[in-house]
Amino acid sequence: MVLLAAAICSKQGKILVSRQFVEMNRSRIEGLLTTFTKLLESGDSKQQHTFIETESVRYVYQPMDSSLYTVLLTTKASNILEDLESLRLFSRVVTEYCTTVCEADIKDNAFQLIFAFDEIVALGYRENVNMTQIRTYIDMDSYDEKVSIAQRKAQEREAADIMKRKAKELELARKEQAKKGGMGRGDRISFPGGIAGTGVSSSEVNTLSVLDNKPPFYSSQGKAAGSRGMKLTPKSRNVENFVDNIMREGGHVASLTTKDARTGASHLSQSAVSLKPTSPVHILVQEKINLFADRNGGLEQFEINGVLYLIVSDADGLENTQVQIESKEKRNFQMQTHPNIDKKLFLQNSIIAIKPDGKSYLLGEKTGVLKWRFASTDESNIPLSINCWPSDGGDRCDVNIEYELTQPNLTLNDVIISIPLPTGSGNPVVTESDGDYALDSKKRLLDWHLPVIDSNNTTGSMEFSIPGLPDDFFPISIQFHSDKPFMQFSIHDVISRNTGEKVKFSMEAELLVDRYVIQ
Amino acid sequence: MAITSEQSCFTLISKIDDSESVNDQVLKQDLENGNDNAKIATMKRIIHLMLNGEKLTSLLMTVIRFVLPTHNHTLKKLLFIYFEIIPKTTAEGKLRHEMILVCDAYRKDLQHANEFVRGSTLRFLCKLREAELLEPLMPSIRSCLEYKHPYVRRNAVLAVFTIYQHCSSLIPDAPDLVLHFLEQEGDPSCKRNAFLMLLHVDERKALDYLAACQEQVAMFGDIMQLVVVELIYKVCHKNSSERGRFLRSVYSLLGSSSSAVRYEAAGTLVTLSNTPTAIKAVAQCYIELVVSESDNNVKIIVLDRLKGLCNKPSHRRVLQGMVMDLLSALEAPDIEVRRKTLDLVLYLVNLKTAPEVSAFLRRELTQTSDQSQEDENIKYKRHLILCLHTCCSMFPEIASSILPSMMDSVLDQNDLIACDVLKLVREMTHLYPTLREDLIRRLTEIFSQVENGEVLRQLLWVLGQHCMTEEEITRVMQEIRLLVGELPIVESEQRKEAAGEDDSLNIIESVPTGSHSYVTADGTYATQSALSSATSQAKKLDDAPTLRKKLLEGNYTLACSLAGALSKLAITYASLCNNQQSCNALKGEAMLIISSMLRLGRSKLLKKPVPAIELDHLWLCLRLLSSPDPSIGLAVLDKTRKAVDELLSEQSKERKMKDTGIPEESETHADDAILFGLLVTGDALDAENRFEASLLQAVGSSDQKDTNSSSESKLDRVYQMTGFSDPIYAEAYVYVHQYDIILDILIVNQTPDTLQGVLLELATHGDLKLVEKPSQINLAPQDFANIKAAVKVSSTENGVIFGNIVYDVAGTASSDKNCVVLNDIHIDIMDYIRPGHLMQEDFRKKWTEFEWENKLSVNTSIKNMQTYLEHIVKSTNMKCLTPPKALSGECDFLSANLYARSIFGEEALANISLKKPQDKDVSVTGHVRIRAKSQGMALSLGDKINISQKKDISV
Prior knowledge:
Chain A is α+β, with helices and mostly antiparallel strands. Chain A has helices spanning 26-42, 80-97, 103-108, 110-120, 131-139, 143-180, 185-188, 197-206, 221-226, 235-248, 256-263, 267-272, 317-320, 343-349, and strands at 3-10, 15-20, 51-53, 57-63, 68-75, 121-122, 125-126, 281-293, 299-312, 321-327, 334-337, 351-352, 366-375, 384-393, 396-405, 412-420, 429-433, 436-440, 445-453, 459-466, 476-482, 489-496, 505-518.
């Protein structure tokens, strides 16, 4: 799978551009590429395949124009399917960055092409990129950079302002001194702590992380397991068949599970199986909120995505478990069942059951059976509305912030409302606050903690003041979790299709915040 | 030392054409004063110049001062390339101090707010090898592993990877670090790169990780899956006991949605297990790929893989059952794919599948459209027929079912196809007499519909040879009679001619061929143009029966076969029939036809005179028939049969060799070691890691072969370049490595003085290019030094390297330099020529296509023709295409075709025609003709032959 080099050659054997992805010396690559054009000439012009193999390498090429070729140099063991995929991308790049594909144009844009080539292949392995991504990578247009540049400018301005003010104060003090005339000169002049020093120096350190309070995106292990979805494929059974066959034929296949036990399964797999249900049927409901609202209370985007998982840990129930759902929801939820679920039955009777000819659940495996989505731009649907009101009072800014729980049936736990603070302006003075607050000085965030917000505690407020501009206090982001789902429904019963008897079940629900931002 | 051949090179850009001379000063000024755009242009220029050999080292400081602090993104990227190519060390191998500044700038870039700047900086660091430079950057690189943007993380992993590979002391905990990273990572690209690093650096850890998430492998992205497969391959390759563990994963990857993964997994599965189930799964996967992928490249390569799979007899048995699936690959329109598929099918077909396969092929034959008589379709049809031919000769049982229905193809518009079918019929009727009757009947039926001369000739031969009963013979005679028309030919033609000309009875001996004056019916003269006469004649010919038409057209090769067939028929008939009268009647008729053909041949009715040799043949037949002794005739029949026997057995042997290309299965001897599947160790399965081997091969660093033979050949390749009494003695060892020639030159100062500024100046003639100029050195008295120079070769031509050595003698005031002229080094093209194989037809086609011919007369002392041929083959590295069978035997002349390819892909054809005079003691005479596409090739090969001829004389 090693791609050695990508090049553009002319039919006459001229190498216009070539970029190597592994170490090789110059005469070697030149020799190989010259040979390519020679081989091309001697080959049958009518042939319908576009690769040439020599003793040592394989060339995969694509004619770009009457006389130009994009050619990839690969090892002979290289995966041709991958190479063709890359080749397509390479030739798209060429057409993208050269207006007309001709020698002169390619020479003009040689560097652009080399930059783009670099994005496609890393150390001889294809990167998973498409044309749009390449374009972004080449443009190098970074939001973070803009933010940091803006910030640096703001700080510079601020520092200049402070300097001016101090200079004025100083001037005043001096004048006063002059008026008073020669009294105790030396000890009266005091420079209130480092004029601009604090602002500038601290900005250098923190430029990168300010304003971006999005946590680094690593997918949690739970998510990885969840994205597996319905794992009812017959593949696994086939594998066993296959392995059995091989064993019968004298091959040796070590059992994986024993190996795992020996090495001590790493914490990866442990976390995946950590949710051991106790009852025969366990229902897990997971919802995620994505919300963007503007500071004036308008709702820009609000989306809830929910999944219902079933974990059947009773061998009898693998095919027969039926879940009866009772929805109290009047809002417009889009429901979607897994293809393996009897859709009709669900729509008519709100019963989740496997299709007559569907595949059964896997024992003890988490299986997603029902998904729902709710999106709205109606402000009344916001679960927790935030009203942040900074008022510019000269050199200080007073910020009033309050929350209101608009959905009384919800209970939100561990709510954290993070308000960004302007850099270099010292600590805020909190005059009034419901709940706790903490200052994250590294990220310059004021975190307002509220352990529970529910119908007993629908509103609360906080007030603080700090030097800054009203714009400095946005975007506010909110984190919370809840064990009540947003969608109002309940599990009526879990019934076994065979016997009609009710089955004991347990249920667990969680509502998580993906992003909840007031801009 | 701008770009030495040893240094790795990542970028090539062609020269810019403007001839404007470059000046360091101008460039410097542009960099100092220009705005960003001007700087970009200048940087591009500098990189161009440096890539094409300029040194420009003085600019480094300017670049660092004025360009490095930039915020412009394009400029930043250009700087990466600039620092990639700039030599980072001084001539003594010490790090240049300026680079420390660069390093600092990159430390800042690694903390840049722009994720793309960070990412590309990290990518650049992958190419940096100097530990001193990397060291201060390590903390920043580490922190980049945790940056929020996947773009940065993924490049950071690669940087860690390469740094660990080259200077592991800088980051000794890299594997742990990356494993930890991998466990946390969510982005597929980052994951892949991290896994890739573990795979190459620490297999144990990679395996642990894989074992932990083996269940999820099926859910990974395709690029990750590919690396997983590679890891499994690598591990199992090293340690065969691990094989069992991963069968499951690999098998489940065979069902991956990405075809690239499936392909790779299949390739790995073969190395993991030899059991029929595994092989079957692999073959199924491959066949699926061949059928479903639309790209011809994929089809061809996968077919090659399948073929490789077949090379093991045990595997072949598994694959034999899947022949029918493979056949659906024939739907592809590309001839190359079809050809490969057919080859493979032929190789796999067995008694059980043969009927089905042949039925399929026959159907394919009839379905392939006749309308579009494209080259491709004809080629495909011929392949199909060849394939059926082989099938039939392997499994004669099926011949009876498919042959009759193939007869229609004899009437195919294309004569080549028809001839191929007839060849098949010839062989079948000869070898399996049971089929004879049916086939002869069918052939007799379609006899009258055949129009092509060549097809007729072959058809006549088959009929003449294989008609065995009275009834058949009389029927064939009847047909022939009909097709030849009225006898005797000359008289009846002249009569017709006369009738055509309105009963004017002045029959002239010469039939008008050009513009002639005619006497018209009313007695006036008229001029008739050649055109109308020709058309009228052509029209007349159209009406004539086929055989007659051909005869009148002057096709006397056909006449010969007709005569042969007639005489064979008559002789066979005589031996079968007791009725003397009918025997004689048949014989008489045959003689009449032959003699009237003879007559026609000598008459002036034909436009071209008939070659005497063909008339001789007719005479011979006539004489054979007229001879009273029946034994002579029978002897002739017997001889022909034997000759055919010999021909066919030779052909089938040849075909077997070509089709399989693999020695026969029956090579196992009784005393061979037996391999027990359970006891087989890893080495027996697959000798070397294909990934690494192919990479090494491609990068050109596999020298195994050379090192083996170096000891004995090294001395042969030493050229003495100056005389022993010259002040400087020089000799060169010429080392040829594919496209490079490396000269290792030993220079010895033979004087008692110190020689200063000894400079070796080399120049080349021909298609050679000096890559690296040797540098100047000083030589102490009686001292010696080794200098290396690299020359690049780009085509096969006799190149010459020449030059001189210039030096100063220390202490002498004279300003002129001393000079020693060197002997020329002739580069031997034989290093580039490899014997190649070519089909006879292709040889002919190329022979007509190639433009350059070099004709040499044989001038040698060799007295035996075979010895001469062998000598030429040996000294030119060419391959003799003429089969040895055709060259054996006592004969006074010899003709052979030779073929070779150069490693640059140039081809050379040669034909040797030799004649041995009667006198035993005289050396052979004749010509050697060389044809090639390029003049250089033809000339240099000719020189080579000339020299080798003479060399032999001196011996």
